[in-house]
Amino acid sequence: MDRIDWEKAKRMLKGLRVKTSHNNEEWKISGLSEKFCINQIFEIKQRNEGPDGVEVQSVEQISVYEYFVTRKSIILEQSRALPCVNIGNSRHPVYIPLELCSLVGLQRYTKALSTDQRSLFVNKSRRSPDERMEDLKKAIRSHDYGSHAMLRDSGISITTQFTQVKGRILPAPILKSGNDQDLNPKNGRWNFNNQKLAHPAEIKSWLVADFSSNCDMERLIQDLIKCAKMKGISMRDPTANFIERDQYRDEQASVRVDKMITTMEKELDPRPTFILCVLPQKKNCDIYGPWKRRCLSDYGVPTLGNLGGLNFLFSKEYFSSLDKVSTIPTLILGMDVSHGPPGQAHMPSIAAVVNSRNWPSISHYKAAVRTQHPKSEIIVSLFEPQSKSRDNGIIRAALRDFSTTTEENKVPEQIIIFRDGVGESQFKDVLNNELEQIIKASKVKYNQWCPKLTVIVAQKRHHTRFFERESNKSFKMSLPVWLIVDKKICHPTNNDFYLCAHDGRIGTSRPAHNHVLLDEIGFTADELQKLVQSLCYIYQRSTTAASVVAPICYAHLAAAQVAQMIQPEDYSSSHAAASSTHAPLPKPPYFGKNVASTMFFC
User: Fold this and answer.
1) What separation, in Å, do the N-terminal and C-terminal C-alpha atoms of the chain show?
2) How many CA atoms lie within 13 A of 206 on its CB side?
3) Beta bridge partners of 499
4) In Å, how far from its chain's centre is CA 442?
5) Contacts of 201 (CB under 8 A, 6+ apart)
6) Any idea what the Cα angle at residue 573 is, between residues 91 and 429, rounded to 5°?
7) What pLDDT, on a 0 to 100 scale, did the predictor assign at position 583?
8) Sign of the C-alpha dihedral computed for residues 520, 524, 525 and 530 taken in this order
9) Cβ atoms of 417 and 366 closer than 8 Å
10) What is the sign, positive or negative, of the torsion defined by CA atoms of 375, 377, 382, 387?
């Protein structure tokens, strides 16, 4: 039998309903026993008549296996060396042998989908503009909202025609590669073939950790070196190539990582520039999280990704046109919160904030990450006062980093905040809580002075779609890139606009809905929309424009990567049950200067 990860099985089974065959009843699984059925002991209280006729109570200890075999006369063929199903709770467990339980059918699945399942789901849900438009028309006809009596009595009528809106097309930004050549995006994409990196990182030494058993490692190494040289990176053969031993391949992911690190330990001093890790699976590999934690946090060694360089930049001419950012010291923040995956709602939320550095550049960012209680969306660690003049919050660190990486140690006169993941009902919380923390942190840092602030919330989870007509009967497959819509369907008093910055080649494009909650800097509509569009083009992981600004993408990546480093067993559901009473949270991994100064999340 293959080795079973019982901790993983416990997480998958928790909350599901089972029917027990010995009494034909349904129960809900709360967990699995810590021991096997033969070793899991519980107490039975018995009442017997004593020698003098007085009732005597006794307690007998018996294993679950022995109880069902001897007391219930049930033959158990497979349960002896398997855990039991707990249908009670953590305080008062009730154990049933595994083979007596069968899952009840047609239960709603609330756990995370596998890679193949997600891919199938996305493919099935994709609809071309024509198909989606036809679905909408059918829905309008079938529901016949206009005939609803309550709406008619209230004087409300609903048209069956779609709203016609006008949009504007913004000109594309101009980017620069390492050989000082212009990169002219077309339809949100640009060709980076035969181009060198704008600021290539220096690779002095590197290692290879091979967890895959079927990879042509020699060819992979030579292809990587060849590609690096083409992009302007000086790179030699790896210092060493470590291959996982066969006897460890069936161990748990954390054990496999520990064994590999132990084998590599001698080569980790002095510290290499990075370690190339070859995983046994393309996506969702269990090794990824423990490996990232050991390398990035424990040893301070990047594991490929961004090593501190930049792939492309704005041209000087284009960047100078963003005069409110290029001429005035401006700090740009991207903020996001990642929550536990489906089926693991007890996991702590991960708050991530990235800050721009090396002003006047707006392409390089540094991340700070904190843990907070599960399902809490508002970031609480932006300002953490220790005394009247001391603060350990995220914003103080961002302000300090901005000054130390800027010529003449300038302080930011403006702060532009991009926030992701909040709905309209939480806008006041962003202003009253998060913005208030930023103001307090700035005043503590700068002796009661605070830079000018602009707050923008980007939303992707909305139901607004745009369709560009190609003819009387059909619509174009994708919207024009750089499309701006800020009239007619936007809020009558608030400042908001829709931006389609990316090329949606599959399905129906979903534009980003940007809400300007505060603007002390005083952008005009054109200036702000141009800045937002420009920040979609500095996403260093791709040669295509992102659908939202790069700082938000980076904050999302940083939060997601740290979330994978925190294992579910480190924060059990019993621990989470006390989270509402302010139980201590697991600390996020510590990143030393060698890692924190790079865009390790990219």
Assistant:
1) 40
2) 22
3) 484, 512
4) 28
5) 233, 273, 306, 307, 308, 309
6) 125
7) 61
8) negative
9) no
10) negative
Instruction: Provide the CB-side half-sphere exposure for 199 (13 A, CA).
Output: 12
Give the residues across from 338 on adjacent strands.
350
Alpha-carbon span 350 to 370, nearest angstrom:
6
Q: Report DSSP state, residue 590.
A: P
- Nearest Cα neighbor of 534 from 395, 382, 330, 397 is 330
Say how many C-beta atoms besides its own lie within 10 A of residue 235's C-beta: 21
CB 306 within 8 A of CB 599: yes
Calculate the CA dihedral of residues 409, 602, 260, 344 and round it to 10 degrees. 110
Which residues have C-beta within 8 Å of that of residue 587, sequence separation ≥ 6? Answer: 371
The encoded tokens of residue 291 equal: 């490996």
Alpha carbon separation from 8 to 13, 343, 480 (Å, rounded): 9, 11, 45
How far apart are the C-alpha atoms of 261 and 103, rounded to whole Å? 40
The tens digit of pLDDT for each residue in 455-465 reads 999 999 888 88
The vertex-90 CA angle with 87 and 94, nearest 5°, equals 35
Burial string for 282-303 (b: 16+ CB within 10 Å, else e) reads: eeebbbbbbbbbbbbbebbbbb
Question: What is the SS3 assignment for 261-313?
Answer: HHHHHHHHCCCCCEEEEECCCCCCCCCHHHHHHHHHHHCCCCCCCCCCCECCE
Residue 21's pLDDT is: 95
Q: By the 8 A CB rule, do 307 and 203 touch?
A: yes
| Residue found by looking up tokens 């389609």 in the block | 500
d(CA 296, CA 531): 33
Residue 331's closest CA among 425, 452, 439? 452
Query: Which residues, 6+ apart, have CB-to-CB distance to 102 below 8 Å?
Result: 18, 19, 21
Q: Rounded distance, CA 135 to CA 271, Å? A: 58
Strands, sheet with 274-278, edge to edge from the N-terminal-most edge strand: 240-243, 206-210, 274-278
Residue linked to tokens 């083979």: 99
Closest by CA to 507, choosing from 535, 467, 538, is: 467
Q: Where are the alpha helices (DSSP H) in 6-165?
A: 6-13, 64-66, 115-125, 129-143, 149-153
The amino acid occupying position 601 is F
Residue type, 159: T
In whole angstroms, give the CA distance from residue 234 to residue 229. Answer: 6
Nearest by Cα to 364 from 556, 602, 548, 202: 602
Name residue, tokens 């096997």.
36
Q: What are the respective helix, strand and coil percentages of the chain, to the nearest 5?
A: 30, 20, 45
- Please tell me the distance from the alpha carbon of residue 437 to that of residue 118, in angstroms, as a whole number: 38
> Which regions of the chain are under pLDDT 70?
1-2, 50-51, 53, 473, 477, 567-583
Closest C-alpha to 240, from 210, 280, 212: 210
The dihedral through the CA atoms of 110, 111, 112, 117 has a sign that is: negative
* DSSP string over 9-49: HHHHHTT-EEEETTTTEEEE--EEEEEETTT-EEEEEEEEE
The residues with which 390 forms a beta bridge, in sequence order, are 387
Angstrom distance (rounded) from CA 192 to CA 182: 10
pLDDT score recorded for residue 571: 60
Radius of gyration from C-alpha coordinates of the chain: 29
* 527 φ/ψ angles, rounded to the nearest 5 degrees: -65, -45
What span, in angstroms and rounded, lies between the C-alpha atoms of 190 and 342?
Answer: 36
Residue 264, phi then psi, degrees to nearest 5:
-90, -10
